[in-house]
Amino acid sequence: MRWITQDLPGEVARELFAARDAGAGEQQQTVILARALGHAYFREWGRRAHGLHVAFSDVEFADFSIG
Questions:
Q1: Rounded distance, CA 14 to CA 17, Å?
Q2: Which domain of life is it from (predicted)?
Q3: Are 54 and 42 in contact (CB under 8 A)?
Q4: Most buried residue among 27, 40, 45, 64 by CB atoms closer than 10 A?
C-alpha cells in the first residue's frame, strides 16, 4: 500500500470537473488522475522516470480537497 499526499495544479481539478460534467465515468476520471499523479509524484514534474506508465488501481481510500 502506498500513501500519497500530493498537491496538483488547478488545471487537474478543472479537467476532472469538466469530465464529470460531460458525463465521464469513474474510469475516465481515474485516467485523468493517474496521469496527473504520474507527472507530479512519480516523475517529479518531468525531472525523472521519463516514460513511466502510471495506473491508479485498487484504491482503498482517497481524500481530496481544493484549497
A1: 5
A2: Bacteria
A3: yes
A4: 40
